[in-house]
Protein 1
Amino acid sequence: MADGTEKVYDRHLYRCYRRISSPLTCEGPSAYEMDPINEAVEVAMRDYLNRISIIPREDLIALAGIREVKVAEVNYKQAVSEFNDAQRQVDALEAEALKALTGENQLDLGVVNSMLLKQKARLDAASKKKEEAKVLLEMEKNNKKANEVQVDEILSWASRFDDASYEAKHLVIAQLVDRIEIRKNDGYDITIHWRMTAEQFLGRKTEVSA
């Protein structure tokens, strides 16, 4: 202090290391008070979770993109049907080609072979399409499971957030928030960018002041 005595006190801050290391690329301050920022973000998170909690679980799952599984299932069934049809055509032509060779029918073997080549090309294309549809279906099913787990986690967090410890609250925030931008005017202007699932539920970002 001015009179030579010492005073020890704690200040909880967030530091902008870009401002410190590269001051010409950042116009903001180098430090921000932690408590008002934490409080504003927690209020926004509580509002987000409260709004989520009143949406039916099945609607949340649908918003998370799980309806894509049904589309993938329809596409896969169609691809299987096209493959099976092409396989039947190839089998039938191969049987006719064999009969032509043995004299059991009077078909022109050259014509049959020409048709067989076209159907085999169709079969190859149908086989590739079927495999691609299968891979996509499996991927969407895996996404469905992940989305269901995420929705259940969010609903669980919504029911426990108010009573959670400081550390637990910030673990939840870390799961749901992509980044937080802060600008200092008279107070703090805070922009919260949610992760993808959160964006699907409530929009891209939330702006609050502290």
Protein 2
Amino acid sequence: MNLLRTLLVSLSVTLLAACNTPGQPRFESMTPAELVEYNQSVGLLDQVVCKKEATTASFIRKRRCQTLGELTLSIYGTLDTASPSTVIYIPHN
């Protein structure tokens, strides 16, 4: 029973430590000045753009932030494949 308790305590401590490790900053809570400072320290596709938009379920506008790389992918999708709406016309001679 003592071994199980020791294992449980060490697992809990490990999980708590993992939750407190610094990861990517929360861009939604950054001020515009902090975003400018962050964007100056990263490359072009890692720069962050924030905008306020309403979801379909609510008229309340929430601040949503994405990197330019994520934004490009959400707009254009995968750039190396044709989209379903792409029409390729080949004239017959």
Protein 3
Amino acid sequence: MDRGDVAMALALLVGVALTGQLAGLVKSAGFPVVGSVVWPVGYGTIVLAAWYLWIRPLDLRAPTPDDGDPWATDPDEPTDAEQ
């Protein structure tokens, strides 16, 4: 885990906490309908940010026959990209 991952996790944690605090503040100020809207919009934004920054870049595809056997490689050997 590098500093970027730690920073993103902290930003998402703060975003979740601030969404809950903001929704509660708006509801206690006498605007329960607006508070009910703040809740899904805030958490939806956090979910979209997590998807965009962490999940979207992952290579989630099925292996093809051209990929070879991933368990047959020696970790000490340089790959084609490293040579």
Protein 4
Amino acid sequence: MVALTGTLLVQIVVFLTLIWFIKAFLWKPLIDMMDDRKKHIADGIAAAEQGRKELERAETRVEQAIEEARQRANEIVDNSNRRAREIVAVARNEAETERGRELERAREEIDQMVRQAREALRGDFARISVAAAGRILGRELDPKAHASLVDEFAEELF
């Protein structure tokens, strides 16, 4: 059996006082700090997921724009071919010249549409990247200040 001495009683009182002090003054701030950190991490993950979804939506829009450009190009080429066949009946030389001009114009228009679609994708990508990075870092980034970095990254992707 343990003898209850004065030292043991003082140690018990000090130990109980220490437990009370930790519970009263340190436990709640520590738990709050851990909860805040957990929420911050969850917000970062949610922001990254939102950025990924935005990027997927932008990619879908670009694919649709490219498909529309292809359809339009096909229509232009079909129209050019149809016109060329009609003109061939009248004058074969004129038809060949006209067909060549129409095809060149169609190619230029296709090239222009592809460039516009790429520029639109770069703009969307830059906006989404800056927004996602800003959310992950927990502060707002200035797209104008980081435009050169975003443009350089977009050039590497495309």
